[in-house]
Input
Amino acid sequence: MIARLIGDARHVAIGAASPIPASGAFLLKSQQPALRVSLHQRRRANPFTEGSRELFDLAGQGRIDVFFLGGAQIDGEANINLVRAGGQRFPGSFGSAFMYSVIPRTILFREEHSRRALVPRVEFVSARGEPFALLTGKALFSWQKEARRFRLESVHPGHSVEEIHAETGFAFDSPARVSTTLSPTAEQLALLRGPVAKEIAADYPEFAARVWDA
Amino acid sequence: MEVVRALIRRRARGLKLLGVPVLGFSADLLIGAGCVAEVETSAVSLGEAGLAPRFTEAAQKGEIKIRDATCPAIHTALQAAEKGVPFMPLRGVLGSDLLKHRNDWKVVNNPLNSGTDPILLVPAIQPDIALFHARWADDAGNVWIGRRRELATIAHAAKATYVTYEEKRPGDMLEDELLAPGILNSVYVTAVARAERGAWPLGVAEVYGIDDAHLAHYARAARTREGFQRYLDEFVCTRKKNSLPA
Output
């Protein structure tokens, strides 16, 4: 799904703590070699030779097409919160306050799909912007810019529309018929388990070992 | 890291830490050891090892002051300092609650545009001290930082810069055309000291990698104050060969 959302972009950058978006991006690159994937936290052969500010300078100039942002909380107006909620402190906003408004295609990604994560209103707005989509572990939403509301696009295999309504804390539009998210093909799965897992293992060793046994 | 461990042994107090642009293991150790009064940063995290446990608890209990920022705002503020100008503009950030908590940040209309064009100004940050670990220093006092150019920006902006290094190179690295672009000139360097494996359990590119197992061990141990204290006793306070992993 991540690979499909990146689509025909030329340059996707991956920020902190994003092994799943990184995997999707490298999967797409294995099929579209012209795609440039810049991993911000790459330990070896880091693409940024001007230090970590270069990612933001590139983004500010429009040289990055796609970026992923997450959130401890994400609300129905697509605000994200990486700072605090319910007395709990989270790491912080990272570059989100900047990236969200300068990146043409921001994809919101949160694996946990629950009322705890998807809330009516975030407690702290780390960043506000216009996302391209919101992808969770259970469903895909598109963003309707005029209505400023999410629209349920598809539900992942094994989950139902009712479950999505029950587990989502904010209101969203839901068409009469919601399709099922396409599963990865056998070929894509083989790539994810093989070369892609190997590609990300150097930077996300814990994730690669846990998910792919790599 | 050696200097961080030494600061803890010396019971440093009241430090203000600036994350460029984020803080990690060093900051969590210093916070847990009670050395820190304030942090300005875009995030505090142990990377794949997860939340920084001592920061998280100190933040939740209100034991430290936190000035939340966003990565490019910190880079931009340091770039203003290295140019000697009082502030620099930055796109984005408008609409973020960060602004509500940062009365030192100002939103103005772009003075070069006759239309409506709000833009954020961040004041220059001039740290008292820049502190980092590098692979090489040379006889001339230069330090090689490679592609970690944000270290140069911190050093340019700071009033004093202290560097620990892995290995001394004879002569003057500026005479080597291939090394020169990765050098921080000695003009910015206040003092250097050798610290072999001084970044451990973090890494130095091509010399030794990040000790992920140790960081995971720390993240588990430091979930409680008692576990953190045991970690300090074992790896910081006893001065056992703490930069050499077992």
Summary: Chain B touches chain A through 48 residues (CB under 8 Å).
